[in-house]
Amino acid sequence: MKLVLRGHHLLCLKGFQGYGYDEDFVENMIEVNSQRKLDTTTVSLTNEADDLCAHCPNLKNGLCKDDAHNETIRNMDDEVLKKIDPSIEYDSVKLFEKIDEIFTNEESVSNICFNCMWHEKCLFYQKLSNNR
Ligand code: SF4
Question: Residue 56 C-alpha to ligand 1 middle, in angstroms?
């Protein structure tokens, strides 16, 4: 299995506990979250629409909502892609372990998570905010 994921979605998947925009989105999120834990799965990284966006009601003409909002989301992706080279295809399990090594406290995700509507419900963010 090959997954294509936006940079910031690596953090979202680690923090997922069942919330989402609608039923189809949540079902797909559950599926992708299972697939990313398999030894046979690889991940390519992007700052464009990915395998999660494909089932999201916010995706319009390949953009997250509109040009302005999409730019904000891309900036969140690029914050992650500055630290993880997007030209490489990764072993999924190792990639998600790497996330834990790179993002170790609330400050490390400040430019990525602070403006996200889900951060209070995100298990990954909650874990980091307890590491202050
Ligand atoms: S379209 Fe936007 S809100 Fe929906 S999953 Fe993609 S980045 Fe998130």
Answer: 6
Residue with tokens 């494909």: 54
Please indicate, yes or no, whether the overall pTM of this predicted structure exceeds 0.90.
Answer: yes
Q: Quick check: helix, strand or coil at residue 46?
A: strand
Per residue in 77-113, pLDDT (tens digit) is: 999 999 999 999 999 999 999 999 999 999 999 999 9
Q: Give CA–CA dist 132/125, Å, rounded.
A: 11
CA distance readout (Å), 115 to 38, 50, 111: 31, 20, 8
For the CA of 57, the closest atom of ligand 1 is: 4
Encode pLDDT of 5-15 as tens digits.
999 999 999 99
- Rounded to an integer, what distance in angstroms lies between the CA atom of residue 59 and that of residue 43? 21
Element (H, E) at 3: strand 2-6
Paired tokens of 70: 């999409």
